Amino acid sequence: MFIETNTLIYILITQAALFFLLIGFYFVYVKEENKKKNIVVSVEEEKILREAHEKAENIIEKAVEEAQKILINGQYLREDLQMEISASLNKALLKSLEEIGKATDIFRNDYDKLFSSFKVEYAAETKKIIGQLHEEAESEVADFGKIIKNETLEAQKFIGEKINAEFEKVRQEIEVYRKDQIDQVNKSIEKLTSRILEEVLGKIIPASDQEKLVVDALEKAKREGVFLE
Amino acid sequence: MSGFVKGSNKILLYDLLSRVITVDERDDFVLRLSDFISDLFGRRGEISDKIEKNFSFAEREKLLELIKRKKLDLNNALKLEKFINNIRQEVKNMEVLKLVVGFEISSEQLSKISAWLIRNLDRKIILDVTIDKSIVGGATIIFKGKYKDYSLKKYVEENLKNYA
Fold first, then answer.
1. Distant-in-sequence, close-in-space partners of B95: CB < 8 Å, separation ≥ 6
2. N or C: which end of chain B has fewer CB within 10 A?
3. Which ipTM did the prediction report?
4. Does the beta carbon of A44 lie under 8 angstroms from any beta carbon of chain B?
């Protein structure tokens, strides 16, 4: 209604303006026409026009006053309406909240009932499923245990064979290394012994013993048939 | 040993050659025998003088003894020459024993070894001695293509191997 009042005012003002504009145009037209016809506008006609103009101005002024009154009334109306609407809204809101509360209680009760029945059903079902799972798990654990045992035995056997093979390999390598080291040590000992023999023993054996050693060598050669003809 | 000297004559010959032990001494003796033969027909003088010139006192005695045992006429140059040639040949053909020892062996020790050879092998064997101190002791023997190592070095090495 507020919006309609505004529209009415605008229409009134626009109409007044148009009317005034038309009056103006008419006045100009007439003047022009009179100019063309070289007709002098009578005083009466001018008076009429002036009166019309004054009336139009009055109408417009009244229209504007009315519009202002309407606007002021409209503002009061708007404030009243707002208060009324707020009151209504509050009332409606309170009622809605009350309704929602009631609905919530109903819903909660229904939910509790439903939940209780679900709880019982769920517990029973869960118990059943747990029982089944337990049985299945026991069975699987037992099977798994058997598999693990077999696999472990196989693995033990495999690892044992592997270890034995590796041990044998290492033992052989150690043996080869040992023999090689012993050979090297023996060679070193032989070299050292030769040196000791030559550098020490050769100097300390007396000539008489040397002669005896030569004769021993000749006797040995004779026994072995070196001197046979 | 050829049949040229036998029995007691062989002993007498070995006596003559008692100072002929090594190959060098053998070669020297053979040369002196050759010189004596040359002197027999070449130079004027008594044969006894020629013997004296080419041989030592001990050799002279033994050579004259041999000639006497052979009942040769000292003035018969031809027969004497033949006799000396036989001796020379005998000496040249004597077996040689190569001996490697590890010490500076003396003449006396060489004589003992030579005597051992005569005593044990019943024949005179000429010695070709080399000194190699690396063998330390004992000897390496090479005789008529046979090689034997009886050195102390080898003995020790073999025993070390047994203990290794």
1. B123, B125, B126, B143, B144
2. C
3. 0.90
4. no
